[in-house]
Structure formats: structure tokens, C-alpha cells
Amino acid sequence: MNKKAEKISDAVGRLDEEIITKAEEKRHISDVKKGSKGKFAKKIWIPAVSAAACAGILCGAALMGGNSSPGLVPVLMETLAEAKYPEAAHYPDESLVNGDYGEAWDKMYEPWSQDRWNRYEAYKTLDVDILGEFYKSTCETFLTDSNEKNRVYSPVNVYMALSMLAELTDGQSRAQILELAGAESIEELRQQAGNMWKANYRNDGATTSILANSIWLDSSAEFNSETLNRLAEEYFASAYRGDLASEDTLRALRDWLNKQTDGLLEDAVNGIELPPQTVMALCSTICFHAKWDQEFNPQNNDFKVFHGSEGDIETEFMNNTQEYGPYYWGKDYGAISLRFADGGRMWLILPDEGKTVEDLLRDGEYMDMVSGSSGSNEWENYKILKVNCSVPKFDVSSDIDLTKGLNNLGVSDVFNSYKADFTPLSEQAEGLAIGQAEHAARVVIDEQGCTGVAFTVMAAAGAAMPPEEEIDFVLDRPFLFVVESDGNQPLFVGTVYTP
Length: 499
Known about the structure:
The structure is a single chain. By secondary structure, the protein is α+β, with helices and mostly antiparallel strands. It is 29% helix and 28% strand. Helix 4 packs across helix 12 (365-371), helix 5 (155-167) runs antiparallel to helix 6 and helix 5 (155-167) runs antiparallel to helix 7. The longest helix has 23 residues, at 103-125. It starts with a helix and ends with a strand.
């Protein structure tokens, strides 16, 4: 193993070491001004949009080139607050050392390594048990009862969107969100969401994981500047103000969303409409790019029969062998993970014969394995084997109405204009309520890596032991997948019934 590889392995492996000092993230937040006076209508529009994409490093760098500062300022909007992301240390340019990974390499490598440790420091502060319960309950709610259709859901984005929504609400409206998120107070939720942001933010030229937020305010209404400042400082949320009823403003909002999602959800973004009574729009995005640590060789691809929900279909499969690949198992499933080159991985979880994807979702044990919420960072049921992996190339997408699910999960008052409490947003908040909550997502995998995008809109108007040495892991029937960041958080969870 060369010195560069040893250093990367060391950075990944020393997860229990403490960093002596924490690098403070630089923030640039402009002052937030009060809007002009005006009365709210009966409904409020709050879109929260997420996207994640995992692809090759070069592709990611080209796509994300303009995202170092997510505050793409719309020409026709007044900027009330502009969030500037912390500077990220870029992965060092190996061509500059000409294969000599000595002191010069160390000097370039150390800032990047320090950023990695800072992310892990933030991850260690997260309550994985509480987050695990949130992930399990929401994944079961939003991914089951799909009539055996493909579905994709972004747990991290919904958690961040609900955290911001909690900042805008009070009373029972806030209490219901806190209970679902597993927080005793808004301060606790704020800290958890902040650390989740720090654990997942990455923009180093090797892997990209960008979380961006923005708030769009109508010029006819007055808003609480203290709340807007808090969102700007704690959530890096830029604030813009203009005529939300105009086509120009709608176009500016769509342009912002398309930029943050790399245009990968263009059709869904362009389908967003702001009802006439809209006074505020809240947008939250995630964009993630990486490549496989061990890419698939296209020459090894073949065609196999996938026994899907719509019958047997011939599908192109990607094949590789992990000579020392960990194989995991739990109640009613087996699993492997495909690692990304610089942290994070995709879990592929196959139900045992006679069991279904929905059985796994309802039991929830798979999330303990994925998130480490079993009380240990290492899942006990695993074995190092020679794993012959065969996974179908897939492109899955879905649209989910979150309204019923959130109501079933106990978040109901924000949808009721008689009960909703949006007083932290404005003293004139009487009658405000969320009218709809939509979520759209798509995940694609190929030989180089995976691409995943998610889009959420809220509108206020034990299996048996594996063989001793070798196993064939063939995903030729419906299965579950999880795209996990290097912050050990599930950016995407999805079901594949038909590739």
C-alpha cells in the first residue's frame, strides 16, 4: 500500500480519536430587515426541496461548480439575508507531488484530513438512537403501502425541513414536530439539526454533500426578523423578498431550486406553482456526489431475470467480486454495502425468501444496522467473506404525498388553520396553515456510482448464518437500498420492485 493510500486508510480508520481543536466554520450572514406591513392570507406556501446526487468525482465537480455559495441571488428579489458556506479544504492535487507523498503531500493533505475529523466530531454529538427511531418511523410511513411500486424517500431532508418548520411555529404545532423528531425543546432540536448539517456538509472536490436553504417572503407581509436571523445563522438560509404572485418571482425561485439540484429535478421543479395567497416559501436542498470505491467493469455486465412485482423481466446486471467483503445479516434479510471512494456507502438489503420489503420496513431492524442505533457502531451479525455481487442497474423514482403520513405521525396542527400557530414567523400569523406536502425522488446507479435526487414541497395555504468462505449476493427480486453519507446518515432510502 503506498503512502497516500495509507493516509486515507488511517483517516477513515481512526474514528475514535479526538481532535484537539475544532475549526470554526466561517459564516457570512447579512442583516435581516423587516418586511413591509400587510395582512396574511389564510394559507402559507412552504416548499422544502431536497436533492442528492452521487456520481463520479469529475462529473460531480463539473455539476457543482457554482454551488460553493448557495445564495444564487435572484435579480428581481430583494436579498434580506445571504448565507455563505464555510470554506472547505480541497482534496490535494496529486499531480503536484509527482508520486512523492512526503512533507509536501502532508502539508496539502492535513487541512482536508482535519475537515474530515470535524465532520466526524459533529456526527459523534448526534443521538443515533433518537434519529434511528425517526428514520424507522418515517421510512415505514412513507415507503410502505406502495402497491409494490418503486419508492424513494430522503429522511435527512425531511428532518431538516421539519426542524426549520419548528422554528416558524409555536405551541402544539411546534410540540408535535418536537415529539416526532425526538427533541425535548426547540434548542435541543436546533442543536441536533445543526450538527446533522455539519456532519453531512462537504465540498472538497472529491465528494460533494451540500445542504442549502432559502426563504422567500412576499413583499406585502411583515415577518419576525429575529426568526429570520435565526434561520440564517443556524440553517444557512438566505432570505429573499418580492411579489410571490408574479411569474418573475416564481421563475426566480425555480431557477434557485434547479441550480441547487443540478437540474436533475427540472421537470418536478418546473411543476411548482405558488397559489395566489402565498406569503412565504421555505426551500431546503441536499446535493450529494461521489463515486464507487470499487467501480464495476462494464465488460462484466450480463443480463439476468429479475423477478419483479410486474412479472419476470430481463435486466442488465453489474457484477463484481469483493475478495474480503463484509456480509451482514439480520432478522429476515441479508445485506452488503458498496462503499463510495471517499466515505459513505450504499446499502443493498435483500429480504429472505418468503419475506417482503415491507416486512423489513415495518420491523425496522435494518435501520439499526445502517445508522448504528443498535447501541454499537459495528453491527454484530457480519462476516468477512468472498462476496460475488450482482446488482441490477436501476433508475427508480416516486412521488409521495407527505400530508397523510405526517398527520399519522402526529404532526397535524400545522395543517389546520384553526389550530396552527405560526407566531414566531409573524404577529399577523392567525389563519396560516400548510395546505400540502409533496415529496418526489429519484435514484439511479451505474458502473461509476449513483445519482439520487429528492424533492419535497410543503404548502401552507434474522436470517441464517452465511457460508464459511463465499456467497453469491444476487439482487434478482425486490430489495431495499439506503444511500448513506460519510456522516453515517441515510440521505435516501428506497425500494426496488422493478429496475
